[in-house]
Design goal:
CATH architecture: Roll
Order of helices and strands: EHEEEHE
Distance between the termini: 19 Å
Structural class: alpha/beta
Number of domains: 1
Number of strands: 5
Strand content: 25-35%
CATH class: Alpha Beta
Strand order of the largest sheet: 2-3-1-4-5
Number of helices: 2
Shape: flat
Radius of gyration: 15 Å
Largest sheet: 5 strands, mixed
Length: about 110
């Protein structure tokens, strides 16, 4: 069965994404990159250096979470067989929350 193998990203909607990212940097020690977010490198990934989890704040009016969506958070899941999982999800239906799915290249 195809499955999730990790979290590839966490994306937060905010009225003021720069202020939100700054708060995370100042209060939680998140080291921000130019894109107003960060990439947490995985230390246990095989081969080493191939995995990371992205974190980023988006503006309230972003279309990235879906047109007209009021969803506050979107999670990107790493999967082991994207085609099989998409086929399975299409047959079973969704839960109403928008997510991203991705499979690393071989």
């Amino acid at each position: 069965m195809a499955r999730v193998t990790g979290v590839g990203g966490v994306f937060l909607r905010s009225r003021d994404p720069k202020a939100m990212a700054k708060w995370y940097a100042e209060n939680l020690g998140v080291k921000l990159a130019d894109f107003n977010g960060t990439a947490f490198q995985w230390s246990d990934e095989v081969p080493a250096g191939t995995g990371m989890t992205a974190w980023s704040a988006f503006p309230d009016d972003t279309a990235y979470f879906g047109e007209g969506s009021k969803q506050a958070v979107m999670i990107d899941y790493r999967v082991d067989d994207l085609d099989a999982l998409l086929k399975d999800l299409e047959a079973k239906g969704g839960d109403g929350n928008r997510v991203e799915l991705w499979q690393p290249l071989e």
